[in-house]
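Recap quiz, item 2
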Amino acid sequence: MAHADEAAIFNKDEEKVDWHDKALWFVRQKRDKSAHKVKGWEELRNYASAIKANVLSNLDTYLLQFEENAQKNGVTVHWAANAEEHNKIVHGILQKHNAKKIVKSKSMLTEECHLNPYLEKHDIEVIDTDLGERIVQLAQEPPSHIVLPAIHKKKEEVDVLFQEHLGTKPCDGDPQYLTAEARKHLRSKFLKADAAITGVNFAVADTGGFVVCTNEGNADMGAHLAKVHIACMGMEKLIPQEKHLGIFLRLLARSATGQPITTYSSYFNKPEPDKEMHIVIVDNGRTEQLSREDFRASLHCIRCGACMNTCPIYRRSGGHSYKATIPGPIGSILSPGIDLKKHSSLPFASTLCGSCSDVCPVKINIHEQLYKWRQVIVKEVPQPIVKKNVLKMAGNVLANSKIYGFVGKSSRFMLKHTPRFMVYSKLNAWGKARDLPEVKGDNFDEWYKKRKKNE
Amino acid sequence: MSRESILNAVKKNKPDGLPLPEINLDFFDEDINLVETFVENLKFVGGRAVQLDNEALLDEEIKKLYPNASKIVSTTKLSQLGTIAISKEIDPHTLEDINLAIIKGELAVAENGAIWVTENDFIVRALPFITNDLILVISKNDIYLHMHQVFEAISKRDRTFGVFISGPSKTADIEQCLVVGAHGAISLTVFIV
């Protein structure tokens, strides 16, 4: 199904859409407040963008440097070309330790690789420990936002879900009570876990260390209690030097939620004695995206979610409507690179207003890439006949000033004099769920000419 | 292993070399009161700041704030309140019911209310997370303006595990309602001496 059809499903519950829209806009406003407090914010963004561009242009060198330093620190480094290899490597490590109970902190990469179902198939229990991720895991849904995985769920739904799975008491969706119950439930999982899996926010080439950011402390609870820590990272997570963490840690949380920094920014360098630390470096389509000159900057992404919070389409269509691991504007430029046909409607799920590019902490030209993907897609993926013909007609009208004037005049006449039930009939997509503007006499051209005459 | 094929693909597909920018820290320089800014940001992230003129008063103040704490781990000589001794060798699972951990923070960051602590300071990696309440003690002379200065200050260290802690653990995953006390410590008090 195309994005617009999926979005129509989300839009059936008007009240919920309004809430979703406002909740995310509120996060965007918090981001603004936080960013404006930082002296040199735009310079931070410029540096971050330039550093990431440098990383991509030397990615092989930095990967080797990172590997060498991580190995020196006693960390085992694995390489996975695709999702299947990634899952096999992780499973292999778990098998070696006979690990059956796993706790996992947030990792969009493991979502992308569908690690959970793979491990579950091999009789391994995987518990997502981020509260939002645990909620969607219990609901058997994918996350709908990369920072706020359960933003599409109302508290009453969480209440019912917890009653069913955790045996909690009905509480009218009291977040305090539900969070406290989740803490108890997940603490017992942390204490019994054989191994912990985390994502990686930044991997540092010159130290071989990596940084994981959370607000809940779940990555640390998992990693420091279990015997084995497996950190899974997309290969673009590298930064050259430790001092560059200063730039990225200043940008990440402010862009994501408006916090000045996440509660925990944990910097792992060496495993503890008698414990193991593994890093799995994953390609899964990234080297291919690297080859696309117009789209490679999408690999700068640090997964803050700011582009989602600001996007007028995302806010009103919900993350699930994108049918991709990474939804929203950034997902709409990443996903077509993975499967052009399946995700061909995503670059059209945008007004091209450019707000995503304006808030992006690493200055990805998201809206320009959306436009470029559209050009690729209309050439390579068959488009609906209606859309093709309508656009052709519109092209003819816009190219000829006489026809344009005539069409404009008749449209204004129609809009003024046609009965309401006809204007807002099914045939007029522009009249769906909104009122068209009131027609007031002249168009601009006529108004301007009259004004000139009277001067 | 796909190591070689990945590296070859990167070599083939990467763009021409782009320079690594030199960072000019002048952009970020500000003449502000570091202690005040730190305290303000610490409060913003849900932490509590207590300024002490005399570090000898530390234990007295802690007792006032946490009168019921009985299972206490202190890893700093500044406090004698510890009731449970720990060493590197202990099983971190045994710390599950700790009420309070008292740890010396190495340095603090004014711009975000964070404190940098490492394994050297808390001995057992799980300690600052698994404890119910957390106390970090910092010197007012160890507060830095921003993260760039901090990374310079910690650049020559033995790297094992370290963490920036900014406030108590929290979540807003249920309808964006902020709840303090997710999986890590449910409160953070920072003593500035």
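The radius of gyration of chain A is 25 Å.
The mean pLDDT of chain A is 95.
End of item.
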